[in-house]
Amino acid sequence: MPSAISVQDLTKRYGNVVALNNVSFEVEKGEIFGFLGPNGAGKSTTVRILTGLIKPDGGKAFVMGYDILKNPLRQSSIWEWFQRFQTLMWILQLGKT
Ligand SMILES: Nc1ncnc2c1ncn2[C@@H]1O[C@H](COP(=O)(O)OP(=O)(O)OP(=O)(O)O)[C@@H](O)[C@H]1O
Ligand SMILES: [Mg+2]
């Protein structure tokens, strides 16, 4: 059974700024995963990659076993589910500011 989310050695640079430096983590199905970090740690960048808004410079990312870098999530059947996740992230962001 694939992990809900699998992130492997994700790297993202914005010019000289290294936003993600070989980030890896697994979220199993049904797991409550706390995605915490200080300002600028790269949380939003990671979520933007997982939702297909931006491309990483390196690494791999799978959602429900689905390679989202090869096949954008919005073409898959789990896109609707993922949009809800994205809305939840926005609500959390709004709550933070
Ligand atoms: N569009 C961008 N252009 C240039 N640098 C960026 C851009 N977006 C993010 N960064 C930089 O990438 C790094 C990671 O930022 P990111 O927004 O992913 O962190 P975060 O963990 O979501 O932070 P916060 O808790 O403040 O929301 C930071 O150094 C940030 O300044
Ligand atoms: Mg953020």
Can you describe this structure?
A 4-stranded antiparallel sheet has the order 2-1-3-4, covered by helices on one side. The chain is globular, with a radius of gyration of 13 Å. Helices cover 27% and strands 30% of the residues. The protein has 2 helices and 4 strands; from the N terminus they run ββαββα. A hairpin with a 2-residue loop joins strand 1 and strand 2. The protein has one domain: P-loop containing nucleotide triphosphate hydrolases (Rossmann fold, 3-Layer(aba) Sandwich). With 97 residues, the chain is α+β, with helices and mostly antiparallel strands. Bound molecules: adenosine-5'-triphosphate and magnesium ion.
Write the layout of secondary structure elements.
Blueprint: E1 5-14, E2 17-27, H1 43-50, E3 58-63, E4 66-67, H2 79-96
Antiparallel strand pairs: 1-2, 1-3, 3-4
This protein binds adenosine-5'-triphosphate and magnesium ion (MG).
The site of magnesium ion has 2 residues, from helix 1.
Which features does this protein show?
97 residues; alpha+beta; four-stranded antiparallel sheet; 2 helices; 4 strands; globular; binds adenosine-5'-triphosphate
Structural class: alpha+beta
Q: Could you name the CATH topology?
A: Rossmann fold
- Major sheet attributes: 4 strands, antiparallel
> Ranges with pLDDT <50 over ≥5 residues?
none
Mean pLDDT: 89
CATH homologous superfamily name?
P-loop containing nucleotide triphosphate hydrolases
Tally of helical runs: 2
Give me the Rg, rounded. Answer: 13 Å
Question: What ligand molecules are bound, each kind once?
Answer: adenosine-5'-triphosphate, magnesium ion
Distance between the termini: 37 Å
Question: Regarding CATH, which class?
Answer: Alpha Beta
Number of domains: 1
Q: Which CATH architecture is right?
A: 3-Layer(aba) Sandwich
Shape verdict: globular
Strand segment count: 4
Helicity range: 25-40%
Order of helices and strands: EEHEEH
Beta-strand percent range: 25-35%
